[in-house]
Write a structure and sequence with these properties.
mainly beta, disordered N terminus, four-stranded antiparallel sheet
């Protein structure tokens, strides 16, 4: 019996070693994105040229949207708002985001050339836009008159409402060039789940081991970058590529890492927090 136990232990050790060896690994190389003079910098989106968009807080404590292209920062503020945040950018340089209007409500916008256009499904009391593909289709969310949050896709002419089955609220973040949409939705227990909407059905894509999964940017191949929370409520980043999940944290993100945007050239962008979460900085990470 003793010999049998010894043999069993050896077999189990080989099994565990094989599992560990087969565990997926991916190396991420992080670079901090910090706009000079800003109190904090947050990066939410990037296109295939590596141009990034996000939001910053200036030295006076005022929030602005911005674009970072070739090392040059351009402030992008909708004149109708007191606060602007840029969240997504496509290959043509079209930018989506939102501003806060005079009533204190969020208003989604499209920035094309030098022109801002509001994006709002009928009956919306507030809205935000997060993703835009190279065809100009936009993903975001809106709040209806009952206070319920819904995801939406806008193709420049028509809006399509997105509500994941069983969701108490839904939000569409990214949309790729094939029309796949990354959707995050809240279930009856209050946890946030992830899904890909392919035009017909919602395919659940939660990060393994996460309490809540927040799928954000999605590239042409259907790879998704996430934010997710662990059992202590701390945020981390993750990448789903080739059907496998790779978790990551910016080494400087002592109080959380958030994955936000992705392009087709192995680049993800996002935000990390330091100093008890009070200071935010952007990052880009190649993999």
């Amino acid at each position: 019996m003793k010999n049998c136990r010894s043999v069993l232990m050896v077999v189990l050790l080989f099994v565990f070693a094989a599992i560990a060896a087969a565990a997926p690994t991916l190396t991420f190389k992080f670079t901090t994105i910090e706009v000079k003079g800003a109190q904090d910098t947050r990066v939410f989106g990037t296109n295939n040229a590596g141009t990034m968009v996000g939001a910053l807080v200036d030295s006076a404590g005022v929030d602005h949207g911005f674009m970072l292209k070739g090392g040059k920062v351009t402030i992008i503020d909708d004149a109708k708002g007191t606060f602007t945040e840029c969240a997504g950018i496509n290959s043509a340089g079209d930018i989506v985001g939102y501003y806060v209007n005079s009533s204190g409500a969020e208003q989604a916008f499209l920035h094309h050339g030098k022109t801002f256009s509001d994006i709002s499904p009928a009956g919306a009391t507030s809205s935000e836009a997060f993703g835009i593909n190279d065809k100009g289709s936009v993903a975001g969310y809106f709040v209806d008159s009952t206070g319920t949050q819904h995801g939406f896709v806008w193709n420049g002419k028509k809006y399509k409402q997105l509500d994941a089955p069983g969701a108490t609220s839904s939000l569409a973040w990214g949309i790729n060039n094939n029309g796949l949409v990354s959707v995050q939705w809240v279930d009856s227990s209050g946890n946030t789940n992830g899904a890909i909407y392919n035009g017909k059905k919602y395919i659940k894509i939660n990060v393994p081991g996460a309490v809540s999964s927040f799928p954000h940017g999605i590239d042409t191949a259907g790879d998704v970058v996430y934010s997710w929370t662990d059992s202590t409520g701390v945020y981390h980043g993750a990448l789903r590529t080739g059907g496998k999940y790779y978790k990551f944290d910016d080494p400087k993100g002592t109080n959380g890492t958030y994955g936000d945007g992705i392009n087709d050239h192995n680049l993800v962008v996002g935000v990390y927090h330091t100093s008890g979460g009070s200071v935010a900085e952007g990052f880009k990470a190649s993999y």
